Amino acid sequence: MDYIDPHIHMVSRTTDDYATLSRMGCVAMSEPAFWAGYDRGSVDGFRDYFRQLTETEPARAAQFGIQHFTWLCINAKEAENVSLSREVIAMIPEFLDRPNVLGIGEIGLNKNTKNEATVFLEHVDLAVQHDQSILIHTPHLEDKFQGTKMILDMLCDDQRIDRGRVLVDHVEEHTISEVLDRGFWAGMTLYPVTKCTPERAADMVERTGGERLLVNSAGDWGPSKPTAVPDFIFEMRRRGHSEALIRKVVYENPVAFFSQSKHFQFAPRS
């Protein structure tokens, strides 16, 4: 089955991973801007990173018949440095016309601090000003419920936000309902250690019906598995779910959400 991975950090993966993903049925992916494994020290460091996301990774992906899209921001892990964050936010418009850029992300909270909230809101303002979709990072483990609520409250307080153009990622059982009930899209991230397993993701699909719901691998610097979405497909099949429902979650829903971005010129593989 062809699928799309809506959130995978290919800068942390080898070219062999692109080959494996293509063989497993991945036809497109989106890569949110993220932490580099260390805190970058200058706006020029981010400028080079954005060139990697808009030039190098699309070329690597294309070698294996995969379309690569991306999102731009300074991640919440680095948002404590407000002055640098503002320099990066001011620089982002240089890249918004690149043909694989879908919007602003992954923005959100890490430790739920005041500085993180400030930088988050300034990213949101940038997205609104430039008519961009938004991809949200929700905090890890013990901070997730509080951080998710803080993020949703900030978004809902801004009447300019089109909730149908916001994807709130890393949802779990205790956060998914509020995200969907407030009109946002929800993303389930499959990690072998933290976040969500294919089995738990299948449980959440059964609970919600799969509307406005996506599933991704993240595939970043920590313990992660770039082929986690196929694992989810196999789990759904093991439970006897229809191919139509599975395709909706792993292919049709990403297409529907990403199609709201003007640069999502998607050519399905024949």
Automatic annotation (TrEMBL):
The record ties this protein, via Gene3D superfamilies, to:
Metal-dependent hydrolases
Which SUPFAM superfamilies does UniProt cross-reference here? Metallo-dependent hydrolases
Q: What is a single Pfam family found in this protein's UniProt entry?
A: TatD_DNase
Domain of life, per lineage:
Bacteria
Q: Which keywords fit this entry according to its UniProt record?
A: Hydrolase, Metal-binding
Q: Which GO terms describe its molecular function?
A: hydrolase activity, acting on ester bonds; metal ion binding
Metal-binding as a keyword? Answer: yes
Asked whether the UniProt record includes S-adenosyl-L-methionine among its keywords, one would answer: no
Protein family per UniProt: Belongs to the metallo-dependent hydrolases superfamily.
- Write the protein's name: Metal-dependent hydrolase
Whose protein is this, by species?
A: Roseiconus nitratireducens
